[in-house]
Amino acid sequence: MDFQVVVLAGGTSKELVPLVSKEVPKPLLPVANRPVLSYVLEQLELSNLKDLIVVVEGEDAALRVGGWISGAYVDRLHVEVAAVPEDVGTAGALRAIARHLTAKDILVVSGDLVSDVPPGAVAAAHRRHDAVVTSMICSTPVSGPVESGSVGAKDKIKKPRRFNIIGLDPTKQFLLYIASGAEVEKDLHIPKSILRAVGQMDIQADLMDAHMYAFKRAVLLEVLEQKQNFHSLRHDVLPYLVKTQLKSEILLNGTPQAEENGHDKVTSESNQTIISQILANASTPRFHEVYESIHNGSPTVQRTHKCCAYIASNSKYCARLNSIQAFSDINRDVIGEANHLSGYSFSVHNNIIHPSSELGSKTTVGPHCMLGEGSLMGDKCSVKRSVIGRHCRIGSNVKIVNSVVMDHVTLGDGSSIQGSIVCSNVQIQERVVLKDCQIGAGFVVSAGSEHKGESLTRKEK
Amino acid sequence: MDARRGSLPVPRVRQVGFFTPNAQPAPTRSQSGPPDSSSPPLSDSPASNSLSPVMIPPPRHHSDNLAAAPRPTSPLPVPEPSPFRRRGADNNNALLVGSYNPAETLLAMSPSSSHVGDGESEETMSGGWFRRSNSGKLASSLPSGTFDFSPVQSTAEALKPNKVQNPVGISEVSARPAPKEQQPEAPSSSKQPKPKLTKAERRALQESQRAAKAAAKAPGGGKSVAAPEEVATIKSVKQHQTQKKDAPQVAVSVAASERKGGDKSQEKERRKDAPAPRMQFDDKSRVEKAKRRSVVDQTEAKKRVELFRHLPQYEHGTQLADLESKFLQLDPMHPAIYKVGLQYLAGDISGGNARCIAMLQAFQQVVKDYSTPPEKTLPRDLTAKISSYVSFFTQCRPLSMSMGNAIRFLKNRIAKLSPSLSESESKSSICTDIDRFINEKIVLADRVIVQHASSKVKDGDVLLVYGSSCVVEMVLLHSHELGKQFRVIVVDSRPKLEGKALLRRLVAKGVHCTYTHINAVSYVMHEVTKVFLGASSVLSNGTVYSRVGTACVAMVAHAFRVPVIICCEAYKFHERVQLDSICSNELGDPDAIGKVPGRMDVNYLNDVSNSGNLQLLNLMYDATPADYVSMIVTDYGMIPPTSVPVIVREYRRDHLLI
């Protein structure tokens, strides 16, 4: 289909600091005991996109990601892993790999997207409108823990965070305005020309840019080339393209047109114009064309380009793992309501307990739980809505609620963990009480300590 | 015959759509009385001429059917189609009945045939296609069964050739044999001279037929037997019988298959010309089957208007999302094809010319990117590919006739490729062919039409146009450029309001315009001096198949004695005959009629549309009878609608080969 896929996997993200480390870069963070990158890769594989470029920040991380991919997808996908220096931003990452981009359209996917929206839909919308950029937009996920009867969940109110302010045309096909929620303090700046051309604009705050874009290669490269100071796709490139859609500064160089119409050099020029006119008249005019036609008389010919939005339906799951809160949310959802994403088959009790794991007597594992292979649990434990990784050793009388426990974790007897994330190789001694904490990899929590809302990491040597 | 008819009980009538409870649906062909052959077919019954094609037949009394009255003014919905029709009718009613079920045809020959009415009403329903498919099927059902009761059917037999060899009125009727039953006129005509067969002869005949069938199957892979071969078999059998009874049957079949070689290609070609039989969407099993093959996951609309059940109608809205999500998964589909399909489905491209051009350009891309897989030949493989793409397009939106003609052209060109050409040569040859088709059949044709039509625009004219036809627009703009002083009235209709775009462009060019909706057409018609209309297709009986509302405009113009000029490229002409716009039409999104354009939040029908009593009908096309059309402007000149069949017949080869 002439689409090239770039997965921007990221590196060691600062926002996820206690969770990510040199050993575990962001793409390899486990979501339901699978690296988060695998969700994207599998979604792409389902769509028959098997030639991918995975861009990772940092050489180290790239090696690790590359190693994991070659192990897991050795004969399924054809993946090139490219390492870019850290802090170049998404735009910089694309700049770095620009010469590898050859296809007509480029699909740029963030590696931390956990979604079941088919990428094909974005691609199709992109092609249908012959757009310069198409962005996937989904409704904002509900964050915060689900009410599970636990006392601690009270102070967390379920409120959708504001991710983006998005302006759409009445048909909800074109992107007229986009800004991230943090940027918008009080006022929005919308070019008058766009408003006048469209006539009506819906501004919605409950939508989120899912960071899956289809770009026209020529345009993307040109913008990256011209605007060297652009750092991020989301904050710079996309708003720029959206803002200038009626006053296109992109020359387009006739590239897309030449590709499409290059074949009929035989036909005379006038025939060509008639054909294009027939086609243009037959299609329902978008505001772009209307705007163009109005301004055709003016001396400077206005060029326009289209920025489309593909709005994922509400029934689809779509979330980005870009914060600690999102990490626990996604973990909860993948084994909970969006469990078709996890790729596991759930037992009758709506949970997954690996056959090699051992449970002590009177230990209960509730629904929406996951227990990785080789994990041992003592007696009288209770697990609710939590993910427990591989080869964990959990003592008796342990309570785990709404938490993520990664691999090789040791939990002492009588400890209680709520709403927390415990990274790999953490040792938690007896009678520890953790609430809404993040424990970095390899940390040792001493016996009897009590923590609430803290982030505990080992000191870097 | 009349006696037989007299004994008729009340015919079992399948009632469809609008019907008045106590009347029969108009039996169009059941006048068994002697026809007044003096009157030419087109001049009689003026009443019939002024009726619309989408007419509800007025209630007829039972007696009308039975009384052998000398041709009452029949409520034929359309001008008389062709002379042979009536001739057939007075010869033998029972035989003419175009039942689709071969078994029924056998029944029809039994003296107690009581289902004439039944067959007829089916016939009337089946509409446009009927004549051609029937003749083949009817004849084909005979050879298997008829031999056994020759005395009964001898009368019928005697009359049959009359009918079968009759296809005068419509150009080249035989071009459309039913795909499976393939032995049209031959057996009957050959059988004609010999009235009776002995038992032995009959058995031999049957056996030889069986052998011939087997022989035909073996090499031809289930392809049907060519007609003349059958004759050969019969004849040779007879020879064998006169010489010796147990002559080797193998020889027969060998001879048969030898004969077949030559005829087969001809037969094949004929079949290729024929459009595939239209799927009837009220046939449940077929719909199921089609669904399994289909790429697009479509849910059939639940509430459908009874009369239009045979047309495809899907829940709008679900298809696009589904197709989009599969964009990258459908491997064999070329992206260009997919894009165009999506655009059809989303309504981004509409209009016969534009759709055709978009499709051809997509095909061009396909051909360019095509490489013949190993162990396959280009003509065969590419044709198969294109067929699959065409069926994909059909799923996105039913093909227009212009597209059908273009596809036919393309396939023909591929089939006619010289095998000595290399792959790249053949590819470039196909590409140039496509280009030529677009240029000659569409662009140049448009230019010629514009030249012709704008010669008809005089100073001071008030021109009425309906909807948005690209040729008509070109005519108006060209006349404007020539400096003619005229005014344009753009008539539009809901729900698509295509006229708005046309109006915008005309006004931008400085043409004086008036904009109104179709419900006001009778008020504005006073001042109109000419009506220019576009067409989706012109059928060989002169019927103009066009955007719904065109017929209404044409009729109003006719009533006001305003000339109606149709602008239509000749590649959109079709040899089909269609009398109404029911049997073949397209259904749009039914919800669109309840919506207010520009105000998506307003839908006055929202609250009632969920009740089971409301069915929404959004027809896309209608058929304007030739009577309302004063002139058709095509690339071959300005012609009356009665000359359409001439163009179809004379230039058809020309169309396909350029």
Low-confidence stretches of chain A: 145-160, 253-267
Gyration radius of chain A (Cα, Å) is: 25 Å
* Terminus-to-terminus distance of chain A: 49 Å
How many strands appear in the DSSP assignment of chain A? 32
Q: Estimate the mean pLDDT confidence of chain A.
A: 78
**In percent, how much strand structure appears in the residues of chain A?**
15-25%
Average pLDDT reading of chain B? 68
Residues in helix, % of chain B: 40-55%
Biggest chain-to-chain interface with counts: A-B, 38 and 47 residues
> Helix amount of chain A, in percent?
10-25%
Shape of chain B: globular
> Which structural category do the helix and sheet elements of chain B fall into?
alpha/beta
Q: What multimeric state do the chains show? A: heterodimer
| Major sheet strand order of chain B | 3-2-1-4-7-12-13
Approximately what portion of the residues of chain B adopt beta-strand conformation? 5-15%
Structure description:
The complex is a heterodimer of chains A (461) and B (658). Chain A is elongated, with a radius of gyration of 25 Å. Chain A has 11 helices and 32 strands. Helices cover 25% and strands 25% of the residues of chain A. Chain A has 461 residues and is α/β, with parallel strands linked by helices. With 658 residues, chain B is of the alpha/beta class. Chain B is built from 26 helices and 13 strands. In chain B, a hairpin with a 2-residue loop joins strand 12 (631-634) and strand 13. In chain B, helix 12 runs antiparallel to helix 13 (249-273) and helix 19 packs antiparallel against helix 20 (423-454). The longest helix of chain B is centred in the middle third of the chain and has 32 residues, at 423-454. At the A-B interface, helix 4 and helix 9 of A face helix 15, helix 16, helix 17, helix 20 and helix 22 of B. Chain A: Its main location: cytoplasm. Chain A: This is Translation initiation factor eIF2B subunit gamma. Chain A: Pfam families: LbH_EIF2B, NTP_transferase. Chain A: Keywords: Cytoplasm, Initiation factor, Protein biosynthesis.
